[in-house]
User: What shape does this take?
Amino acid sequence: MNAFRQSMAWLHTWTGLLLGWVLFFVFLTGTYGYVNTEVDRWMRPEIKPVASMPATADLLQTAERRLESEYADSQSWFVYFPGGQRGAPYQVGWRTWPEGDARFGAFNQETLDPVTGNSLSEETRDTGGGQTLYAMHYALHYIPYDAAILIVGAATMFMLVAILTGIVVHKKIFADFFTFRPRKGQRSWLDGHNVLSVAALPFHLMITWSGLIFFMYTYMPFAMDQNYPEGEARDQFFIEAFGGDNIAPGVASPPAERAPLVPMLREAESRWGEDAVSMVRVESPGREGAEVMLLSREDSVRRVRNTLVFDGETGAVLSEGPGGTAPGQLDQVLLGLHEGRFAGPVMRGLFVLAGLAGTAMVATGLVLWSAKRKTKLAKAGTPHAGIATVDVLNVGVIAGLPIGIAAYFWANRLLPVEMAGRADWEVHVMFLTWGMTFLYPIVRPMSRAWTEMWGIAAFAYGFLPVLNAMTTDRHLLNTIAQGDWVVAGFDLTALAAGLCLGWVAWISHRKTEAGARRPTAVSPAGAGSAAPRAGG
Amino acid sequence: MTVLHAVFALVLATAGFAGLALAMNKHHRDVFGRMPTRGRKQMLQAMSCGLLVLSLASCIGAWRVSQGIAGWFGLATVAVALVALGLTYLPRTRLR
Assistant: This one.
């Protein structure tokens, strides 16, 4: 058993180190996914909440008019109803006709004014919003999608390995369940790492496993490729495996009569209740064989929603869902838990906390790797290039990425609204800033680098509400007065994050001072604060 | 699910996990200054399990089954963290 545990410890340590930096990025940007709609709202300050939202049927009619007059000749139409607790925007979407062999055309969308029905896209700043930030946790950025999901997939696989080996390695998983011993250097880091891992273990297991399930067709495609090749055969696979709750992409058939959408909405509401429809999708609008699908809002862990499919020419009901097979339902539960789209505000908060616990678990693990080796080396008295490199990367990733993300929000407020390629530049600013944070621990002593970087991060978040007030009218005074809690919540959370990061900076500073007085101790805040001093 | 429901379930879960912690020799000694007797341990464990079940039940009552279970795990994470921090930083445990 001991040899087994030791080999598991080796595996845990080295897979953790190798992929820890990627996993930190995935966990932190993924946590933003639980508030992507809320972040979107903050990053588009031009879109204001409406005092009294028109009825759903009126909204549908407005959207229908807009699509009919501007995008009549499209492969498909989408109408997204606004509202819900997350303050989702009122949007229409459309797919242009596909080119070449593609089955789906390019997807476009615009936000509409609920009252006038005019597009708000012109007057809204160009931004990637929370969606771009959240998409990074599986698609990364700047590299092709296919490569990115393989990198993230490999990291996720090793995350699963790290969790399972971590459980084996943790000798006193029950005895130390509630144990945190502060101010004991390496011991404290291990305690912190253990408590963060064990307390949120159900979340860590769920999020890692379901993250792999998301891309199972990419990671293990062979059986499907063999038996259900591309195109309609592939559709058949999904129908057999998960039940047929989808409609086929539109084709350019001859023009035909188009049934109005509002009666379909009334039909759906009579079955599901008032305000229960979240989306309307039309394939081949105004053409032969057109189909319309209505989707209900999500309020169950199972991602499956009620669906109602209509004949787009006659308006007759064709089918009602959800159907769904047993494996399909299990799949949807796992994916539903991962995304947490069903979550109300309280549970959304819990998802964010669990995501942050995962982020902190990875961070403490990375710092622990370095702290452990430094304790040994401090005894031997030899500095080590490998550990110094790990330290620089730790500072740059753990303290640097939060600063980079804050820079993304700063760029959203500071870049000129009319700037070309503005949304891209927001992301460039994020990565340029993040890149610079790696230089910081190189030019500053490691002992100071942690403290100062946490200080910078504290300012970068704490000042966001002020920056918001200086650049827009969606500041706390207005948003709280108008009860716009989604935008106010962003500012208040940024303020709280700033305070927490400031507290971390203060602890780090205090430990560095203590470490300077006791040169052989390894200071946890820096995890590196003592060694350079002891060595040099 | 209102915030009040969540706080109620969180209090139950925190009390439950605190009880489980106190049923352990180490934490019992830290808090009460002596080892727990066998009977006291069993009583604490039984009571704690009851509190945790109540907490889960109140989550399911307010959130329905599927969301209730998911939400309870989230609250349990917070509760465990609170108990760990409490055992470390509350004055009574720090005295010893």
Summary: The mean pLDDT of chain B is 90. The radius of gyration of chain B is 14 Å. The CA atoms of residues 21 and 27 of chain B lie 6 Å apart. The helical segments of chain B are 3-22, 25-32, 38-63, 65-89, 91-95.
